């Protein structure tokens, strides 16, 4: 799911009931990851096929070689709250 946080596009991914938030654009080709697929803990880019770990943002497979920015996520009732990490 695509959301915006202070003008930044953020993709939310639900992996085994846990919500993760990452930068929405692939670090290789700037393709929208919200249009990609979630495969377990891996977010697959729809363009070049790069894979990223939704927990850490780390690259799992090329052609991307830079990790995605991650965001802190907390749940308040039915609301998903996100904030920049760090």
TrEMBL record:
Keyword Chaperone assigned: no
| Residue stretches making up the Rieske domain | 1-82
Q: Which Pfam families match?
A: Rieske
Which GO molecular-function terms appear in the entry?
A: 2 iron, 2 sulfur cluster binding; metal ion binding
Looking at the keywords, is Cytoplasm present?
no
Which UniProt keywords are present, listed alphabetically?
A: 2Fe-2S, Iron, Iron-sulfur, Metal-binding
**Domain of life here?**
Eukaryota
Protein name as it appears in the record: Naphthalene 1,2-dioxygenase system, ferredoxin component
What's the source species' lineage?
Eukaryota, Metazoa, Porifera, Demospongiae, Heteroscleromorpha
């Amino acid at each position: 799911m695509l959301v915006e946080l202070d003008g930044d596009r953020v993709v939310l991914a639900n992996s085994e009931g846990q919500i993760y938030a990452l930068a929405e654009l692939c670090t290789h080709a700037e393709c929208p990851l919200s249009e990609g697929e979630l495969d377990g803990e891996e977010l697959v880019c729809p363009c070049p096929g790069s894979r990223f770990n939704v927990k850490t943002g780390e690259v799992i497979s090329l052609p991307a070689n830079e990790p995605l920015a991650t965001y802190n996520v907390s749940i308040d009732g039915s609301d998903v709250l996100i904030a920049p990490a760090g």
